[in-house]
Amino acid sequence: MDHARFEDPEFVKLYTEGPGRFVPGYQVMQRVAAQLIAERVGEIGKVLVLGAGGGLEIETFAREYPKWTYLGVDPAGEMLEAARARAAACGVSAAWVRGYIFDAPDEKHDAATTMLTLHFVPDDGGKLATLRAVHDRLKPNAPFILVDLCIDKRAPDYERAVDRYRTFALRSNAQPDDVAGTIERVRNLLQTVAPERNEALLREAGFKDPQLFYAGLSWRGWVAYA
What we know:
By secondary structure, this protein is α/β, with parallel strands linked by helices.
């Protein structure tokens, strides 16, 4: 994974505007994710956030469930600092790990999320290893939220999916240069897979009962249980 833009302070400043312009229903999706976590966790719990850079989901979760605490994991230092500042502004308790899930402590958490992150990981054993490492850091039956871009590069409707992604971003007032760069990364950098593949990976990693709770164009979100 190329982390260069996630270490660019100017990119990080603008990042908070990005997801909502590229991910349909982004904020509502986060609120629903918090609700699904709370079904098992309640008002007090510790949530592992893989890909925590920016801190957007922590900010949303903090508004919904202010007593949750967090372990945020991200390999990009600038993004992690942005998340740290956002969490502090929300008044939540959080610890941070700069690195990958394998660098996180082995302690068991009440829930976990990885949003807009797994599609950076190659499906050469890397996705499965990542999901297994998350599973290993969860208490039994703890909820796990996975939200991922699911454009199957081998599918006959690949170009249509990419075009819809581009059109949504442009009509959401994303800058044309940003959209062009994002589409280039979708084509040449992101390791996206079909939704069915992500469900299979969840099961193989040990998660039970993966349930689709979100779909927006080619984005998909599941809740599953350790």
